[in-house]
Amino acid sequence: HRGQLGRILEGYTAGGKSYGYKNHTIYHPTRKGIHGNKIVIGVELLIIEEEAAVVRLIFELYEKGHGFAAIAKTLNSRGIASPSTRNPWGASSIKGILHNERYHGWLVWNRTRKVRNPETGRKGKRTRPADEWVRVHAPDLQIVTEEQWERVQQHLKQIGARFRSYQVGGFHRTARSKEYLFSGLLFCGQCGAKINVVVSRAKKSGGRYIAYGCHNYRFCGTCSNSMLIGQETLEQQLLEGLCNLVLQPERLELAVTEFQRQLEKMVEESKETVRKTNAESDGLKKERTKLAAQARNIADAIKENGHHQSPTLLSELMKIESRIEAIDHRLNQSNNIPELTLTTDELREFVYKEAENLKALLQGDRFLAKQEIAKRIGRVVLTPKETDTGRVCEVSGDIHLLAGDPRVLPNEPLEGIAEHYTGMRIPLTGVVLDPSQALSA
Predict the structure, then answer these.
(1) Closest C-alpha to 301, from 311, 291, 288
(2) CA atoms of 187 and 284, how far apart (whole Å)
(3) Which of 148, 296, 300, 371 has the most other CB atoms within 10 Å of its CB?
(4) Are residues 350 and 253 in the same domain?
(5) Contact at 8 Å (CB) between 235 and 433?
(6) Are residues 70 and 109 in contact, defined by beta-carbon separation less than 8 angstroms?
(7) CA atoms within 13 A on the CB side of 408
(8) Buried b (16+ CB within 10 A) or exposed e, 180-200
(9) Is residue 284 within 8 Å of residue 330, measured between CB atoms?
(10) DSSP string, 252-295
């Protein structure tokens, strides 16, 4: 941290890349490291004129009244490569460039700090107080004029004050947004991008009108899928489609057949493991006896010397005990030969019961429904299609009829299988969403 600060104060970059610049490593003219390599003094930024011209164009377009998404679409339509090698220009990348102080000749360091989310365990960034930032004037890096920078920043502040509760093209990830049932699961059938909230505006009758659409069409201009579908319409029609699917007899019969096949496969695999263990039983028992004697000897040595004086012995004892536990587990398997005792009728009754339970969950509490949807559906693809009555969305994907741990053997009661088995999927074929259809009461 201190070394990075020193480099920043000397005008070098602390690392990373910025659009419009390239990194140029500066080496000490005479000194070398212990392996004979040149010692790095620092890394300076050099302007890439071709990319700098794009930065100036972005500032000019924004001054003329173009929004983030409109600028991104313009750049993509002109075939201008984005900073990302994987994604086209988007509203977020345009916003980032317009806020980047390097473009008016300032290096800013120590703006953020890493913190760990106590709920997820993941690390994220948090903005530090402004008085902790380190700012160094670097006029050689200036790409836009100071006057243009100030005009753009003033406009950004005005827009931010007007829409501070909402993000570009939509809204904040507030508690309300987290309630959306299919958030993060919807994808465009034409380009593969996410389908997410692209419209959020106040309704005259109160509340907000929220609509889903293709991210690439709305913000990048790289997809032709212009279809919008209201949040309430999408959720109601998709939930109804899911509930109807999981209760269709022909689909459930296919699920019963697949369920039985996979259970039989699991039983055969378990029997093979038992047969292999029985063949190795004598060798495993001899190994266990030998390990048990070693464990007793090590335990006696630790007791005599104290565990603080015997870290190596303690570690070795833990390894031996772990191996003994694994051997015991395998030997116990040899006495537990699994059998599939459930009849086809019992499996059918179980599958139909699970389908009814799933339907009840989907039609019940929104929070529980969202949890079940997240567990049972990987992705839902919406593909626009022209019909005689207008455009609709064809749905594809699949839903897990059961959710849980697939490793549990089927010699448990049906309730146990219900908690642990995940092998059945019902395809979402035949579900069609109609954006123009009125909501049912």
Answers:
(1) 311
(2) 52
(3) 148
(4) yes
(5) no
(6) no
(7) 17
(8) bbbbebbbbbbbebbbbbbbb
(9) yes
(10) HHHHHHHHHHHHHHHHHHHHHHHHHHHHTHHHHHHHHHHHHHHH
Same domain, 257 and 293: no
Rounded to 5, what percent of the chain is helix, strand, coil?
50, 20, 30
User: Positive or negative CA dihedral for 226, 227, 228, 231?
Assistant: negative
Rounded Cα gap, residues 350 and 347, in angstroms: 5
Q: How far apart are CA 436 and CA 431, in angstroms?
A: 16
- Domain check: are 258 and 377 in the same one? yes
The boundaries of the domain holding residue 312 are 265-333
Q: Using an 8 Å Cβ cutoff, are 399 and 377 in contact?
A: yes
Contact partners, residue 400, CB within 8 Å, separation at least 6:
375, 376, 377, 422, 424, 425
Residue 157 falls inside a structural domain:
no
Q: Tokens 């377009």: give the residue.
A: 61
For residue 342, what are its two tokens? 């459930």
Terminal-to-terminal C-alpha distance of the chain = 60
Q: How far apart are CA 82 and CA 100, in angstroms?
A: 16
Is the CB of residue 212 less than 8 Å from the CB of residue 229? Answer: yes
d(C-alpha 321, C-alpha 318), whole Å: 5
Residues 258 and 309 occupy one common structural domain: no
- Which amino acid does the sequence have at 274? V
What is the number of other CB atoms lying within 10 angstroms of the CB of residue 234?
Answer: 24
Tokens of 247: 């209760």
Beta bridge partners of 384: 393
Contact of 239 with 395, CB cutoff 8 Å: no
Write the DSSP assignment of 212-225 as a string of letters. EEEHIIIIIS----
Same domain, 299 and 422: no
355 located within any domain: yes
Give me the amino acid identity at 401.
Answer: L
Q: Phi and psi dihedrals of 370, rounded to 5? A: -65, -40
Has residue 176 been placed in a domain?
no
Q: Are 201 and 182 in contact (CB under 8 A)?
A: no
